[in-house]
Write a structure and sequence with these properties.
The complex is a heterodimer of chains A (about 260) and B (about 550). With about 260 residues, chain A is an alpha/beta fold. Chain A contains 13 helices and 8 strands. In chain A, helix 1 packs across helix 13 and helix 6 packs across helix 7. The C terminus of chain A is likely disordered. Chain B folds into 2 domains: about 220 residues, Hypothetical Protein Pfu-838710-001 (Beta Barrel), CATH 2.40.320; about 290 residues, CHAD domain. In chain B, helix 6 crosses helix 12, helix 8 crosses helix 13 and helix 10 packs across helix 15. Classes of the chains: A alpha/beta (about 260), B alpha+beta (about 550).
Chain lengths: ~260, ~550
């Protein structure tokens, strides 16, 4: 089981869009995929039309009084399940802090699912918190969406330093440019130069396209409702890069019915 | 009970979309119920998505002629779509036990490019693997034959909640049976739950259950297909199934028995002629032998000299089948024989195997010719006529079936005791051979009239007889095989098909047969003593005593 997390200290940079589309593409490849919507704003749950509610709230899940298994919901897409968000997730830091080894808690909660899922995506809320430390600890690959600005490159450096200072297992980082606006010179320059210089930046950049914003109207991944669109193709390229970085083999491909 | 529907989708992945089926229904079109109408779930908060997926599948169910899979609670179904074929074995509750995949599959895994067996086929036609392993002990030497064919058009509709989230799936399967007879099957609906939405799926199922023309489905796909085509699974068995009443006239009882035996005989002709597997001939021969024994031992109660007229015909038929069966026995035992060689090697024995195969092919041609001959056609026509006219003529009401059974079983029993008691270590093999025939006669009589007796007592009476018969059978079979292997060796010498090493290996086989025969001879005394003991005798007398009363 490979765990990917979409993470950035900043909000509104395309974490959820990436998590939703990449998890859909992974399921299309034939992997058994679970997406955990860890953000109390519940955007991923909303996009899959699943009510953001977990019985007993985040506390019951983190403490283990309810098994994760019970809370999982099937999405409308074969092979893709969702662990919904819950409004109580905003207090997950407190719940984690009250328990033992909070940094390792998420990993140990997910471990029993390894027979059931091949790939897990964690869609994280912004910020640096105990929850994000636990996510960094659990994840094999950290997918970091970056707006192509000088400032966000600094953010990536800070994140790399922060992860370098963590105890225990550390995820590999795969940053990618998100909300790329080709009309802006700075966006073009940074998104073209940086991947060539840095190993941890993906070659694929996700453009700022209104079709991606359409996801909240369609309530489905753009890769599902417009699979031939430019946006969907970029996500497919990004998934291919992420999959290779994580060492996942390419499966035989789409399982869609005619 | 599951409908056992498998969908082969895409390339390597298989989606068993009914894996979490909540409930299944049949839609009775006679009541004017149409799937489209029923699926709208009128009056509920659910919406049903029009964007349904649909596909057409060719389905084929396989079993042995004697329904070994069905009797073991198994179903073997082949589903084909777009050049991909899946063969799946399911259990009593539709659970998947093993499967294999054939045809156009990308990549090497999962049987890409293998072509599926063309049915009927023996188990050896299947690739090695879990499916074949699982089938082996059940199917044995029997061929897998198509028992039903159908075409299913499967449509999947999604049930949506107020957020337009899918909460359940309804699979509509419209199946048309094409074999054994063309027939339409009521549309089948299966409600399956999505993970986390079990409660909603149950609600959907409850709504469907109340819709007009909808009834709970209780049959498997195979059962539904066969029922529509007017056939019942498990409708063939080589066992005697005629139920006799103690007071019925003996003549009528014998007509009923012989009619049943002839049905079994005829049921096996096609498979024997086409040489589908060795059991067709085996069952056919047993039906012939039973018929001959019935005519010999109780044919006198039939009117108009029927027995005398037809006994030579059945002897001819029996003799016709002997060479092929003898060679079958050799070939079926060949792997064990080859594996048991000590001095010689299996390779050295190989020309013998080739000779057996050639001889069998020739014998089989002869047999098939005989079964297509005018003489057999006459027997096929005249024997049922004779039985029918015997049935139409009300004969004497006495003796009763029970009386006939009691006297004939008692007589056969006395003969076994007399002949067996006379056998000493110095007796020639022929005396054991004769005793074997007497035992068979007794056994057949016990089987013919088995329906008159308490099953428990019947089983106890037969048990010791069976042990004695096994011993005599081993003695006789090894005797015959020893004689045959000498003939085979001579034939192979004549045909210059016998290298010295092969003849030596055959000599070793002959020695092994002789040792087995000696062992059987050694066991005979004990087996006969058990059979002839006062307790053993009383078990058979208890049967006939009760029946004759």
């Amino acid at each position: 089981m490979k765990i990917f997390a979409t993470y950035n200290i900043k909000g509104g940079v395309g974490k959820t869009a990436a998590a939703v589309n990449l998890s859909y593409l992974a399921a299309q490849d034939g992997y058994r995929v679970l997406l955990w919507d860890l953000d109390a704003q519940a955007a991923a749950s909303f996009l899959f039309r699943i009510k953001p509610r977990v019985k007993g709230g985040g506390k019951a899940l983190i403490r283990g009084t309810r098994t994760i298994d019970d809370a999982i919901k099937a999405t409308d897409f074969d092979g893709l399940d969702l662990l919904p968000a819950d409004f109580t997730y905003r207090n997950l830091d407190l719940v984690l802090d009250a328990g033992k080894k909070p940094q390792q808690r998420l990993g140990s909660l997910l471990a029993p699912l390894s027979g059931e899922y091949d790939v897990v995506f964690l869609d994280c809320p912004p910020g640096i918190s105990l929850l994000s430390e636990s996510v960094l600890n659990a994840a094999d690959t950290l997918l970091v969406p970056l707006i192509p600005t000088t400032l966000s490159v600094r953010t990536l450096d800070q994140l790399t330093d922060f992860i370098g200072g963590l105890d225990g297992s550390r995820p590999q980082i795969l940053a990618f440019f998100s909300m790329l606006d080709r009309r802006k010179r700075l966006h073009r320059e940074i998104s073209e130069q940086l991947p060539a210089k840095r190993q941890d930046v993906a070659a694929t950049a996700i453009p700022a396209i209104s079709l991606i914003e359409q996801m909240s109207v369609q309530r489905a991944p753009v890769t599902a409702f417009a699979p031939r669109s430019a946006a969907a193709r970029r996500y497919a390229e990004l998934w291919a890069e992420a999959r290779e970085r994580a060492g996942l083999p390419q499966l035989s491909g789409s399982s869609s019915m005619p | 009970m599951s409908f056992g529907l498998f969908l082969v989708i895409g390339n390597l992945r298989e989606v068993f979309i009914l894996q979490s089926v909540v409930r299944q229904f049949l839609l009775n079109g006679d009541n004017g119920a149409e799937p489209d109408q029923v699926l709208k779930l009128p009056g509920s908060a659910f919406a049903v998505s029009d964007a349904s997926r649909s596909m057409t599948l060719r389905r084929l169910w396989l079993d042995t002629f004697d329904w070994r899979l069905y009797r073991s609670g198994l179903a073997l179904e082949q589903v084909s779509r777009a050049g991909v074929t899946e063969l799946a074995l399911t259990g009593r509750d539709g659970e998947m036990l093993a499967s294999d995949r054939f045809g156009r599959v990308a990549g090497g895994a999962g049987g890409g490019g293998r072509s599926r067996p063309s049915w009927p086929a023996l188990l050896e036609a299947l690739p090695l693997g879990p499916l074949r392993d699982r089938l082996g002990p059940v199917v044995g030497v029997r061929a897998l034959l198509p028992v039903a064919r159908a075409v299913s058009t499967v449509r999947e509709a999604r049930v949506l909640n107020s957020d337009e989230k899918t909460v359940a799936r309804i699979t509509v399967d419209r199946m048309s049976v094409t074999f054994p007879a063309a027939a339409a099957v009521p549309a089948h609906l299966a409600v399956s739950a999505l993970r986390g939405y079990q409660g909603q799926a149950v609600k959907v199922a409850d709504l469907l259950a109340e819709a007009p023309g909808v009834a709970e489905a209780s049959q498997s796909g195979l059962e539904a297909a066969l029922a529509a085509a007017g056939r019942r699974p498990g409708d063939y068995s080589g066992k005697i199934s005629v139920r006799l009443a103690p007071r019925m006239p003996a003549g009528a009882a014998m007509v009923a028995l012989l009619t049943g035996l002839f049905d079994t005989l005829l049921a096996n002709v096609h498979g024997t002629v086409r040489d589908l597997d060795t059991e067709f001939l085996h069952d056919l021969r047993i039906a012939v032998r039973r018929t001959r024994s019935a005519l010999k031992l109780a044919g006198d109660v039939l009117p108009g000299g029927i027995a005398a007229r037809f006994r030579p015909e059945f002897k001819w038929l029996g003799d016709l089948t002997t060479p092929t069966r003898d060679l079958d026995v050799y070939l079926l035992g060949y792997p064990d024989m080859a594996a048991g060689l000590v001095a010689a090697t299996a390779e050295e024995l190989q020309p013998f195997h080739a000779h057996l195969e050639r001889s069998r092919a020739a014998a089989q041609r002869q047999l098939a010719r005989g079964l297509r001959s005018a003489r057999f056609a006459r027997l096929r026509r005249d024997w049922p006529d004779a039985l029918a006219s015997a049935a139409a003529r009300p004969g004497p009401t006495r003796p009763s079936a029970a009386r006939l059974a009691a006297t004939r079983i008692a007589r056969a029993h006395r003969r076994v005791l007399r002949d067996g008691g006379a056998i000493t270590p110095a007796s020639p093999p022929e005396s054991l051979h004769e005793l074997r025939k007497r035992c068979k006669e007794l056994r057949y009589l016990l089987e013919f009239f088995g329906s008159l007796y308490d099953p428990g007592e019947h089983w106890r009476a037969v048990r010791e007889l069976k042990a004695l018969q096994d011993c005599l059978g081993e003695f006789q079979d090894t005797q015959v095989q020893r004689e045959e292997i000498r003939d085979f060796a001579a034939q192979m010498m004549d045909q210059r098909a016998a290298p010295a090493a092969t003849l030596l290996a055959m000599g070793e086989i002959a020695a092994g047969l002789a040792a087995r025969q000696q062992r059987a001879r050694g066991e005979f005394t004990g087996r006969f003593r058990d059979f002839a003991s006062p307790a053993g005798q009383s078990r058979i007398r208890a049967l006939t005593g009760v029946a004759a009363a």
